[in-house]
Amino acid sequence: MVFAKRLREGVIRGEITSSIRIWTSPHVKVGNSYKMADGHIEIESITPIGLPDITHAMAVASGFHGVIDLLKVAKHGPGSNVYLIRFHYLPPHARRPAQAKKTTPLSPAS
Questions:
Q1: Structural domains in the chain plus CATH codes
Q2: Cα–Cα distance, 8 to 72 (Å, whole number)
């Protein structure tokens, strides 16, 4: 996922954990991670919503001043489907449990 330059620091600090996107279909998948800065964004959920469902609180939580500010940025291409995407930022050295290296027990010294 690509974020407006002014939002990136808030995402990295964990202050922004949701985004409203207007697409023809979802461009991200739940559980996948996407490169951002030195780390990654991991998608937690994608919920289809309607334009009237977008509240001031949702816009502010997404890093915008209000709904109008958000709508100026949220539309990507010809899409008309509105999605609420929840995510979290993974710093460069953080790993998801499924990505952690498997370790084998050491055999006792003889």
A1: 5-92 (3.10.400.10)
A2: 17
